[in-house]
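dumping these here so i dont lose them again. two proteins, back to back, each one seq then structure tokens. dont judge the mess
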Amino acid sequence: MTDPWLRRFHPADDAPARLVCLPHAGGAAPFFHPLSKALSPAVDVLAVQYPGRQDRMAEPALRTIEALADGITQALLAWLDLPTVLFGHSMGATLAYEVGLRLEERGTPPEAVVISGRRAPSRLVNDQVHLQDDDGLLSEIEGLAGTDPKVLRDPELRELFLPALRADYTAIETYRPSPGPLAAPIHAHTGDTDPHAPVPDVQAWSAHTRGDFTLTTYPGGHFYLVDHAPAITDALLKLTTSGF
């Protein structure tokens, strides 16, 4: 794979369906490496790599959801030969929704969109984390318990990931949703104690699809999916191999 937007860690050429995984703010494609390994060879998994991090460090990080969704959509056009499901966590969930809308507009719709740990677009709040200083931004990330605190406190590593992290928070906190709803079904998953995605706000995704809607909750906070990886893997396997 040569497209800078996509990583295919475990190619599954004979799989009947494809899962596209979109990471959270500050995240990167390798976050989904364990999921890709667990689903292969039954599902062909693509993980999205946003600009401004890891092997795309030399590229400027994008600061709007629209620019990110446009880039991801363009990259996926060469990979729509199989039934495709979009799966995004946190900021990635919003991107999955926006990419889904763009693919539907092009006449190449996804089979389903799977939302994880993100309130519905109709439940946006006026967060201002992207305007805080570096310490404030890092304190927010540390509170989500999804990043090793040693990484957050290492001065050299901070210099590397802070620009992309701030760009991601700028994108998600200034986002205004595109007109919807999706035609594709939405399947939502969330932790029952996630302060950034209260269950009623996740339930509100039901208004953003003309298809079926399901909601599954798990014990845990914003990164519940790490502790419940087997259950998430099983849900995605069943969805992508169900024959739609």
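---- next one ----
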Amino acid sequence: MSTVWTIAGSLDPVPVLSRLDLVAEPVAAALKALDGADRVAVAEIDPALADTAEFCAHYGSPLAASANCVVVAGKRGDVVRYAACMVLATMRADVNGVIRKRLDARKASFAPMDEAVALTGMEYGGITPIGVPADWPVLVSPEVAAAPELIVGSGIRGSKVLIPGDVLVKLAGAEVLPELARVLEQ
């Protein structure tokens, strides 16, 4: 892997396929099948610093290069549909507008923590779209898709994945959804 990660700060990224022990099991399985996985890296971090703001402050990685995965549950009657939504850390997912409509749901909300953890097989604070259940759409904001470098979760709190946006959108079920996210009010 010849990628130079300008967003790594003080992290020590290594090719993810050489350190699958640093990602959750469903993430490792998905990475093995991902076109472009040779352009993906992983870096070990202090699990207590996995939350985005603390992570960026400690490791010197730009907040604008961090992408968060939020699990959304959309309900219509007795049917619940889930989606993994990728937005930049500087933006907020439009759960009750764009995402709710895409899931054809009457009501949409962030999935409860215990539900998201159980369904993904990942740790809360480390959930990533890489390796979510195959029947979930992976909704990606255009800003994430266009990013040359991103830092995302690894499925565990003890590491982060570094991935180009064009590789992220190659995930099974990925679709770029215009207006998925809005800039956070300062």
